[in-house]
Amino acid sequence: MQDSGTRAIAVSLALFGAAALCEIGGCYAWWCWRREGAGAWVLLPGMACLALFGWLLTLADSDAAGRAFAAYGGIYIVAALAWLRLAEGRPVTARDLAGAALCLAGAALILSAGRAPGR
């Protein structure tokens, strides 16, 4: 059985993963419209994704918004590299992976220290 701290971190990581997909999807809609000539209609689901992204971050177990955003940053970087490879078909380099590992270590450190009071 997991203790409440481990469970809270697991839930936060899942929320951050979902938020990253929403943020990347929303931003990619703008990218497609401005840089790849997609129709303006792509902005509607893009904006919905960005709104969902913001809402998901508010659900993370953190005592401060800035701490949640900082911890989320590590997860976002990993998700962006996955997007690079899976959606754009571009290679991920060893430096990309090393940088992502450093960011994940920082995110884990921030998450372990910054849970909301009483949780």
TrEMBL record:
Annotated membrane topology: Multi-pass membrane protein
Coiled coil: none
Keyword Endoplasmic reticulum among record annotations: no
Stored InterPro entries: EmrE-like (IPR037185), UPF0060 (IPR003844)
Annotated keywords: Cell membrane, Membrane, Transmembrane, Transmembrane helix
Superkingdom field: Bacteria
Membrane-crossing segments per the record: 39-57, 69-86
Compartments where located: Cell membrane
Pfam families (alphabetical): UPF0060
UniProt-listed HAMAP family: UPF0060
PANTHER family cross-referenced by the UniProt entry: UPF0060 MEMBRANE PROTEIN YNFA (PTHR36116)
Sequence similarity: Belongs to the UPF0060 family.
UniProt-recorded name of the protein: YnfA family protein
